[in-house]
Amino acid sequence: MQDFKGRGAFVTGGASGIGLGIARALADAGMKVMLADIEPGALDKAVRQLREAGAEVQAVLCDVSDRAAVERAAQQTLAAFGKVHVVCNNAGVGGGGTMDEIPLADWDWVVGVDLMGVIYGIAAFLPHMKAHGEGGHIVNTGSMAGMLSPPGMGPYNACKHAVVTLSETLAAELAGSRIGVSVLCPGWVNTRINESARNRPPRFGPPREIPIAGRERAAQVAELLRTGMTPREVAARVMAAIRDNDLHIFTHPEMRPALEDRFRRILAAYDKAAAFKDRSQG
Ligand SMILES: NC(=O)c1ccc[n+]([C@@H]2O[C@H](COP(=O)([O-])OP(=O)(O)OC[C@H]3O[C@@H](n4cnc5c(N)ncnc54)[C@H](O)[C@@H]3O)[C@@H](O)[C@H]2O)c1
């Protein structure tokens, strides 16, 4: 997609962090942007900041884990802009804990936001994008956690792997159409993702205190985020990927060895299958 001017965009989690960075970049390219977010104060502040910079933005309060709320937000966006050409399913939350200790309510929350939120966003906008026929782009925010499986964040990893594969599936299904698909897989970015509990909808129960054993790791994560890439830099990568119709968007080349190590281990297991087959046939 090359033509951004005057066209409509929808960004979930647009009130802060990476979503706000993407919204700002889309607005700078001349798009009308709808910020959809669950946090009213941050949403108001983001709209004020962007408008002061001359952007054409609007906001809708929306919990992406609530299918009806996403549908309502989509209707509101279409009523405001007429058409939408860029959809960024970006809202996400993180919750820590090992697989034996993490409460099922945390799974429900993380799956609701990080996976179902993306699915609801696609379901709400894809038929419209196909119908207007002018092309466009869908950006789903995954993570390097969708490429690797770091311990202590099972629900997050599971959702992000799912977002990678559903994006790859969607790209294959839309190949040859004028709708592009990208999955954004950043490493550490300087945002408040480690304070996700601030936006936990009450229906998922109260947030859990970080267990003492997890506090050192939480402090390390806070430091990695603090020294991470800026949302602005991530947004610049996203804009380039939309223009080039890149499926995978990576931002942290220094994480390549970890990915290579995973692929090596997978291929070694596959070699074992070939050796096993040879032996059983021989
Ligand atoms: N920060 C990182 O290091 C990093 C790395 C890889 C991927 N990501 C992903 O980037 C995306 C954005 O996260 P971020 O790092 O900017 O964090 P952030 O906490 O700064 O921003 C997340 C935004 O999503 C909103 N949100 C949370 N729950 C919501 C819900 N139920 N409905 C609607 N909005 C909701 C929040 O209010 C917030 O504005 C997430 O999908 C996250 O998983 C972040």
Helix-strand layout with pairing:
Layout (H helix, E strand, L loop, with lengths): L7 E5 L4 H12 L3 E6 L2 H13 L3 E6 L5 H15 L4 E4 L14 H29 L3 E6 L12 H20 L5 E7 L26 H15 L4 H14 L3 E3 L5 H26 L1
Parallel strand pairs: 1-2, 1-4, 2-3, 4-5, 5-6, 6-7
Nicotinamide-adenine-dinucleotide (NAD) binds next to helix 1.
Kindly report the oligomeric state of this protein: single chain
Inertia-based shape: globular
- In the sheet with the most strands, the strands line up as 3-2-1-4-5-6-7
Fraction in beta strands: 5-15%
Rg estimate, integer Å = 19 Å
From the helix content, strand content and strand pairing, which structural class follows? alpha/beta
* Major pleated sheet: 7 strands, parallel
Number of strands: 7
- For the termini, the CA-CA separation is 54 Å
Number of helices: 8
List the uncertain runs: none
Fraction of helical residues: 40-55%
Would you mind describing this structure in some detail?
- With 282 residues, the chain is an alpha/beta fold.
- It is built from eight helices and seven strands; from the N terminus they run βαβαβαβαβαβααβα.
- The protein has helices at residues 17-28, 40-52, 67-81, 104-132, 154-173, 212-226, 231-244, 256-281, and strands at 8-12, 32-37, 56-61, 86-89, 136-141, 179-185, 248-250.
- Strands 3-2-1-4-5-6-7 form a seven-stranded parallel β-sheet, with helices on both faces.
- β4, α4 (104-132) and β5 (136-141) form a beta-alpha-beta unit.
- α3 packs parallel to α4 (104-132).
- The longest helix is centred in the middle third of the chain and has 29 residues, at 104-132.
- The radius of gyration is 19 Å and the shape is globular.
- The model has no long low-confidence stretch (mean pLDDT 96).
- Nicotinamide-adenine-dinucleotide (NAD) is lined by residues 12-13, 15-19, 37-39, 42, 62-65, 90-93, 113, 141, 143, 186, 188-189, 191-193, 196, 199, 225, 228.
